[in-house]
């Protein structure tokens, strides 16, 4: 007898479906149907373990079969199966979920039940113009049933013949989605979504290369690893196992190995397993994101975990798996889920624990890894206050000599020599050892230590440290004259008339080359007769703002401003003293003419530019030619 009817969709039950099962990506259908088949297989195993099913389990696998001629994809299992009454209840009445009912009944034994059969199933209609269910229940004397629907609320259901228990879902693929009739496409989706499902997923046969072509063998092609590494007990695993798994996850990483890893295994107050790897990260944050794969009971959910885990953790690689993570919901829903928030906080704690343990027990190794860890740790400190509190204990400062210090260790090192007149500790740093070499050497001659801050986030990090560390400032070593960069006492002002300042400024600026998007100011400081006559420095604040603007769109305004440098004249140097004396008597045009003809001031300015890496192109060529002319 053929039963006809309409699928029971009411306003009372349609909204939960829209909320949880409104997919934006058609390819998700395969994950849903295969997951349901795994569900059914896990159910029969549970019933057998409890003695409620006495029959032979036989082979328990899920087979995916492609028939391009008939335009079908079939997903078959030997699981629990369904009676006609159950098909009517779980398929025709969409609001019900057999998995939920099964879990309520067998909650102590059914942790492996994946999804919500009867709900995710309907994703199949995104790519199919007709779907058939052919199912035979494990219950004795229950006839097999065939259910057919073309995507409208109308269906047919009738008895049919089926030799073995289990369910076949036959998808008649719509012409619009014929890409899902290609073997490579289906295999790629199975690998993406089903690679670690707990029941063997079989798709075709393994192939061998013979006589110049691939030939099917007799061996089934099993897509998945039913017992992935993160589900195993850490005590029985070796480093080689973790490294092999990393390469399996990221085959395009070639010979790159992770520095170390964390094996997560939590069963209270939530369930969480996984392995998180620390890759070598030196720069370019964006290239490192979205390498964590999120699973729910070994079912792939997403690799777009930003907003689900703390932002800085998106730089880690690996796998997170938890049945407490909803499978079929949007990322925005996940972000607000309380279990997800708890899991996120726990992972942050475990990461901090691992880093602190490595620092305390194996500090030498930690220091060797610091250059690769630094970006990750700085990112965490900048974006997560709780992580900052933990990381402040093991974060390191590295100086230009390659020595490493904790914050407290460095404070002890420099507080005696690098404390200014206001009691602030001035931490000097460079961003490029080669370009700022002369400034670094000048600082060392004063007995100062110089930190190396050449990382992508360093300019933001030092700003954060200035907020967190009491009476501490970070100043780049070329931001002022070394005699004034750490002011021990008040600086005596140089007394010049307004006319002198105008004349000298006009004269000096006329000797400077034109550099695109660069402006110069002129200042006068008494630096001693033996100090350089001319030095060029860049203001710490304006330079830092421009560097931050390069990374933060909301600060783009600063990025458009020109670079501002200060040309500092040493008023106690003999050549500059003569220039100042001349400015008392001569107007700016006459003084400029004489200075230009003499060429010495021009040479001094070019030397200052050259030491800062700012003399280039035509200006550099002219400097070299002038230098040779002077020594003829």
TrEMBL record:
Gene3D superfamilies: 3.30.230.80, 3.40.50.11260, Heat shock protein 90, C-terminal domain (1.20.120.790), Histidine kinase-like ATPase, C-terminal domain (3.30.565.10). GO terms for molecular function: ATP binding; ATP hydrolysis activity; ATP-dependent protein folding chaperone; unfolded protein binding. Coiled coil: none annotated. ATP binds at residues 32, 36, 77, 82, 167, 331. CDD domains: HATPase_Hsp90-like. SMART domains: HATPase_c. Keywords: ATP-binding, Chaperone, Cytoplasm, Nucleotide-binding, Stress response. Residues 25-177 form the Histidine kinase/HSP90-like ATPase domain. It comes from the Bacteria. Belongs to the heat shock protein 90 family. NCBIfam families: PRK05218.1. This is Chaperone protein HtpG. The gene is htpG.
């Amino acid at each position: 007898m053929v039963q006809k009817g309409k699928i029971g969709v009411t306003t009372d039950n349609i909204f939960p479906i829209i909320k949880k099962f409104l997919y934006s990506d058609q390819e998700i259908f395969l994950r849903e149907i295969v997951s349901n088949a795994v569900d059914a297989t896990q159910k029969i195993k549970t019933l057998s373990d409890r003695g409620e099913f006495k029959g032979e389990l036989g082979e328990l696998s899920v087979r995916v079969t492609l028939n391009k001629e008939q335009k079908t994809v079939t997903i078959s299992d030997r699981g629990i199966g369904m009676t006609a009454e159950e098909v009517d209840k779980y398929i025709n009445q969409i609001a019900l979920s057999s998995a939920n009912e099964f879990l309520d009944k067998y909650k102590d034994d059914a942790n492996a039940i994946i999804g919500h059969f009867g709900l995710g199933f309907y994703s199949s209609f995104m790519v199919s113009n007709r779907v058939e269910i052919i199912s035979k229940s494990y219950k004795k004397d229950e006839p097999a049933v065939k259910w057919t629907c073309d995507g409208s609320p109308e269906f047919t259901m009738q008895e049919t013949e089926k030799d073995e228990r289990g369910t076949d879902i036959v998808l008649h693929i719509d012409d619009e989605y014929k890409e899902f009739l290609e073997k490579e496409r289906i295999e790629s989706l199975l690998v993406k979504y089903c690679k670690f499902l707990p029941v063997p997923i079989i798709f075709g046969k393994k192939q061998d290369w013979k006589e110049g072509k691939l030939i099917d063998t007799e061996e089934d092609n099993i897509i998945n690893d039913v017992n992935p590494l993160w589900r195993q007990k850490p005590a029985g695993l070796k480093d080689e196992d973790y490294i092999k798994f990393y390469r399996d996850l990221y085959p395009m990483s070639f010979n790159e190995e992770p520095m170390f890893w964390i094996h997560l295994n939590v069963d209270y107050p939530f369930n969480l397993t996984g392995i998180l790897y620390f890759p070598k990260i030196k720069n370019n944050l964006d290239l490192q994101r979205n390498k964590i794969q999120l699973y729910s009971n070994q079912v792939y959910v997403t690799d777009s975990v930003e907003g689900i885990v703390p932002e800085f953790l998106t730089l880690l690689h690996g796998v997170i798996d938890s049945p407490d993570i909803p499978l079929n919901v949007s990322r925005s829903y996940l972000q607000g889920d309380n279990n997800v928030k708890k899991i996120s906080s726990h992972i942050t704690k475990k990461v901090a624990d691992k880093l602190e343990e490595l620092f305390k027990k194996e500090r030498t190794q930690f220091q060797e890894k610091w250059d690769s860890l630094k970006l990750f740790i700085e990112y965490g400190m900048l974006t997560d206050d709780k992580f900052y509190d933990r990381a402040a204990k093991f974060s390191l400062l590295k100086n230009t000599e390659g020595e490493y210090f904790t914050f407290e260790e460095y404070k002890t090192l420099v507080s005696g020599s690098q404390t200014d007149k206001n009691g602030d500790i001035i931490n000097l740093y460079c961003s490029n050892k080669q370009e700022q070499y002369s400034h670094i050497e000048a600082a060392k001659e004063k007995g100062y230590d110089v930190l190396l801050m050449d990382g992508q986030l360093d300019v933001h990090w030092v700003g954060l440290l200035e907020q967190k560390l009491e009476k501490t400032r970070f100043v780049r070593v070329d931001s002022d004259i070394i005699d004034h960069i750490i002011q021990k006492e008040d600086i005596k002002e140089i007394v010049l008339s307004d006319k002198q300042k105008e004349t000298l400024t006009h004269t000096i600026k006329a000797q400077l080359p034109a550099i695109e998007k660069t402006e110069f100011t002129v200042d006068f400081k008494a630096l001693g007769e033996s100090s350089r006559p001319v030095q060029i420095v860049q203001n710490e604040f304006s330079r830092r703002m421009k560097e931050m603007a390069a990374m933060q769109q909301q600060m783009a305004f600063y990025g458009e401003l020109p670079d501002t440098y200060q040309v500092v004249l040493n008023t106690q140097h003999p050549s500059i003293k003569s220039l100042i004396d001349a400015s008392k008597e001569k107007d700016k045009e006459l003084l400029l003419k004489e200075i230009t003809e003499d060429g010495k001031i021009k040479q001094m300015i070019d030397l200052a530019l050259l030491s800062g890496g700012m003399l280039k192109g035509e200006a550099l060529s002219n400097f070299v030619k002038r230098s040779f002319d002077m020594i003829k």
